[in-house]
Amino acid sequence: MIERYTLPEMGNLWTETYKLKTWLQVEIAVCEAQAELGYIPSQAVEEIKAKANFDPKRVLEIEAEVRHDVIAFLTNVNEYVGDAGRYIHLGLTSSDVLDTALGLQLVASLDVISQHLEELIQVIRLKAREHRNTVMIGRSHGIHAEPMTFGFKLAGWLAEVLRHQERLKVLRETIAVGKISGAVGTYANIEPRVEAIACEKLGLKADTASTQVISRDRHADYVQQLALVAASIERFAVEIRNLQKTDVLEVEEFFAKGQKGSSAMPHKRNPIRSERLTGMARLVRSHAGAALENVALWHERDISHSSVERVILPDACILTHFMLVEITALVKNLLVYPENMARNLNCYGGVVFSQKVLLALIDKGMNREEAYAIVQESAHTAWNKPEGDFHALITQNPRVTENLSPAEIETCFDPQQHLRHLDQVYQRLGI
After folding, report:
1. At 384, is the secondary structure helix, strand, or coil?
2. Which long-range contacts (CB under 8 A, 24 or more apart) does 17-25 make?
3. Residue 121, CB half-sphere, CA atoms under 13 Å: how many?
């Protein structure tokens, strides 16, 4: 991922140095397990732990000659360790190290993502609490529907993010897996007890039944879950973009002092963060497709997945992390305009209260089809006219006034009638 979208907290987990560090962690854990079972001298393991090191530049230099990254790494480590290095990688295949170390990277990355997801949860909950009674129009098909509150809209966001939180807890169990089982997973040159001890030392579980690699359904699951998080962030971003349109302007991204929206038009205040998040979600989603393609490997393993994962795994983690940080700041600093929400709600004389009038007429005994025709005629007469006034048309319609009193009509136009059950939703979410 380019530096522009790489924050150090996540970017540091995907550097070459960090990757090699996890490789060394795996090799040492296996050595410790071998020593515990009496297969290699404990003194040798202590020497390995004291001396083992690597130089990323030297590893690349060796790899240029041998054309094998793990061999290059082991050669460099042995340059530091000396004779005791003969016990490193004993009975292992390269993927034992690569896949187990990758599990460590993915767990570390997921922990960072989960931390920032929790921060987003708290920010959305606070903003929802602040606007639990801020009345606005709800929209379906992009058209005004019925009154709701901005807090209720945010409640939907919160519920969605809480579902992601539960999914990521399950995902951590799925991906926190290692394998030390040899060339085709049969433990031909190393016994399962070594795998069990080494994985426990690393905070991982041993894979149930590996081949030469850990099956890629786990990794596809990982990227798909990140794509789901990104999709939700995109949904929130698209909503902000729509509500920031000049002719709507119910919310607006915070516009910093000195910020400029356009090189040509000084008046512009563009939703650039939301647009950026929309684009990033497309990238993460595309990586989910590539991760699914990686599941079908030849027999016990081929290398077709490797080049893909070098790109999609760091990129998906780095992008998701960036998106979470960005959407959290965006929601926290979001400008909300209740007066514009009220203006939009009441355009055309409160035409959005049509269903309440319809139901009130039906409650008085009027046939539904007849009531619908009366209300629709008034609504469509008021619709899309600067002087359109649904409320006035209803109060002047004799078919309505002969069934509903003035007080009953006014009750139909009270937005609080639409909001009386929202506390139940807020209570479910701690808003």
Report:
1. coil
2. 17/56, 18/105, 19/101, 19/105, 20/54, 20/56, 20/59, 20/73, 22/101, 22/102, 22/104, 22/105, 23/70, 23/73, 23/97, 23/98, 23/101, 24/52, 24/53, 24/54, 24/77, 25/101, 25/104, 25/202
3. 17
Under DSSP, the state recorded for 4 is: G
**Which residues does residue 178 pair with via DSSP β-bridges, in sequence order?**
206
Q: What is the DSSP letter of 251?
A: E
Q: Which residues sit opposite 149 in a β-bridge?
A: 135
- Span between the terminal Cα atoms of the chain, in Å: 37
**CA-CA distance, 393 to 382, in Å (whole number)?**
8
Integer Cα distance of 425 and 431 in angstroms? 8
> In which residue ranges of the chain is pLDDT below 70?
none
> In this structure, are residues 54 and 20 in contact, taking their beta carbons and an 8 Å threshold?
yes
> How far is the CA of 150 from the CAs of 137, 156, 335, 362, 419, in angstroms?
9, 10, 12, 30, 11
CB–CB of 341/136 below 8 Å? Answer: yes
- Beta strands at 177-178 and 205-206: parallel, antiparallel or unpaired: parallel
3-state helix/strand/coil string of 207-233: CCCCCCCCCCHHHHHHHHHHHHHHHHH
Please count the other Cβ atoms lying within 10 Å of the Cβ belonging to residue 419.
Answer: 17
Q: How far apart are CA 216 and CA 222, in angstroms?
A: 10
State the residue for tokens 């509500």: 243
Indicate which residues carry an active-site annotation. 141, 262
Q: What tens digit of pLDDT does each residue of 28-56 get?
A: 999 999 999 999 999 999 999 999 999 99
Instruction: Taking the CA atoms of 121, 123, 126 and 128 in sequence, report the sign of the dihedral they define.
Output: negative
φ, ψ (nearest 5 deg) of residue 411: -60, -35
What are the phi and psi torsion angles at 188 (to 5°)?
A: -60, -35
Each residue's pLDDT tens digit, 168-220: 999 999 999 999 999 999 999 999 999 999 999 999 999 999 999 999 999 99
Across 189-222, b (16+ Cβ under 10 Å) vs e yields ebbebbbebbbebbebebbeebbbbbbbebbbbb
Across 144-177, b (16+ Cβ under 10 Å) vs e yields bebbbbbbbbbbbbbebbbebeeebeebeebbbb
State residue 136 phi and psi, 5-degree precision.
Answer: -145, 175
| Nearest CA among 226, 109, 104 for reference residue 164 | 226
